[in-house]
Design a protein that fits this description.
The chain is of the alpha+beta class and about 350 residues long. It folds into two domains: about 1-120 and about 270-355, no CATH class; about 150-265, no CATH class. It is about 65% helix and about 20% strand. The chain has helices at about 1-40, 45-80, 85-90, 95-120, 120-135, 235-240, 250-260, 265-280, 280-295, 300-330, 335-355; strands at about 150-155, 160-165, 170-180, 185-200, 200-215, 215-225. The protein has a six-stranded antiparallel β-sheet with strand order 1-2-3-4-5-6, covered by helices on one side. Helix 1 packs antiparallel against helix 2 (about 45-80), helix 1 (about 1-40) runs parallel beside helix 4 and helix 9 (about 280-295) runs antiparallel to helix 10. The chain is elongated. The two termini are about 20 Å apart. The mean pLDDT is about 85.
């Protein structure tokens, strides 16, 4: 029985690995066709292009693992069925559950591994990939050198900080303002030609303060203000410019806590955090469908199973994406939006498994 386990497990691992390499090759080829022209226009060195795809690889792997596991399950069980090995095993009294157990065990381990992979490896590589893309594809400066950011951050429900240009290395910004409101009415606005972050506070220089009162608007000009405690630091400005995909689960938790402290909107970040937990479970779901359909004993079963499995996968991804959007818009709670697709399609997967047992 141990030999049977290793036999099935080895087949599944090999087919999954080959599928993963195949998807990586397709992904890189398509992306290179799309971005190659930009690399050439910006005279990108070959080593930078290689570095870009090295940092891109973890994201490609994380997106391809569920599909690769599905193909691995289909090819493994389909091959066993084609050569009547599944029939022989069942004739010997081996249950379908025992046959698919090695595949499902590996898929479960892959789902756990995928979470830690997307937590530890993917975010940092995504950030480095995005920096290269900013410079050599979009023709902009790197993230730590960029100035034209038009940064806006909401501090609580009553204060907004805007900086048109910010130098993250020197912690100096240009054309900034702070707007203070209360009961939907503006109290004052500080405009400055230059702003600097020093000693945990902001210093505004060369500007004016407008006070909005019932009598009208009053103006005060200044060359340099005293330090202003806004509750925001440059790290918040940098982090707010990242895409949720460039942060790991625990980084998102820390950032969400920071946004809560600022009173800023954190809905999309909260949704992304829960989806980082739920997405790896897709490996188990699609593999369950793959092994169940892969045991088809009809002559046309292999092709039909292949087509239906990919249809199932695309529908699953579509629902997963739709519920994610519903979570961001507030139509679904964060937890429900993250897990409802998994629950629904796992039930479908169990249904396919029950059919395969007959």
């Amino acid at each position: 029985m141990r030999k049977l386990t290793w036999y099935i497990a080895k087949k599944y691992c090999l087919f999954t690995l080959f599928s993963l390499v195949g998807f990586w090759t397709i992904f890189v080829t398509v992306n290179l066709i799309e971005t190659g022209k930009k690399f050439i226009q910006n005279d990108t060195p070959v080593d930078i292009i290689l570095d870009y795809y090295i940092h891109f690889t973890p994201q490609i792997i994380s997106l391809s693992v569920p599909v690769a596991c599905l193909l691995g399950a289909l090819f493994t069980m389909g091959g066993l069925s084609k050569h009547n090995e599944v029939t022989a095993m069942r004739a010997c009294g081996i249950s379908v559950l025992r046959i698919i157990a090695p595949v499902m065990t590996i898929a479960f381990l892959c789902s756990i591994g995928l979470f830690f992979f997307t937590e530890i490896i993917v975010p940092e590589n995504n950030r480095k990939k995005d920096e290269i893309r900013e410079v050599y594809v979009k023709g902009r400066r790197a993230l730590d050198e960029i100035r034209e950011r038009h940064l806006t951050i909401q501090v609580g429900n009553h204060k907004t900080l805007y900086i048109s240009n910010f130098d993250f290395k020197k912690n100096i910004g240009f054309k900034a303002y702070v707007l203070q409101v209360k009961d939907d009415k503006a109290l004052y606005r500080i405009d400055a030609q230059q702003v600097a972050y020093k000693d945990s506070a902001w210093v505004f220089s060369n500007g004016k303060i407008r006070y909005f009162t019932e009598e009208g608007t009053k103006f005060e000009t200044f060359t340099k203000t005293d330090t202003i405690q806004i509750g925001v630091n440059p790290d918040d400005l940098i982090l707010s410019r990242y895409r949720p995909e460039t942060l790991g689960y625990f980084e998102l938790e820390s950032f969400i806590d920071r946004l809560k402290g600022l009173g800023a909107n954190f809905k999309k970040w909260e949704v992304e955090k829960f989806h980082k937990l739920s997405f790896p479970f897709a490996v188990v779901i699609v593999t369950l469908v793959g092994v169940s359909l892969g045991t088809e004993r009809h002559k046309s079963g292999a092709a039909r199973s292949f087509i239906f499995s990919f249809f199932f996968l695309f529908v699953y991804y579509g629902v997963f994406k739709f519920t994610k959007i519903a979570g961001v818009t507030g139509d679904l709670s964060e937890i429900v939006s993250a897990w409802i697709a998994n629950v629904i399609f796992f039930i479908f997967g169990l249904g396919f498994y029950q059919k395969a047992k007959r």
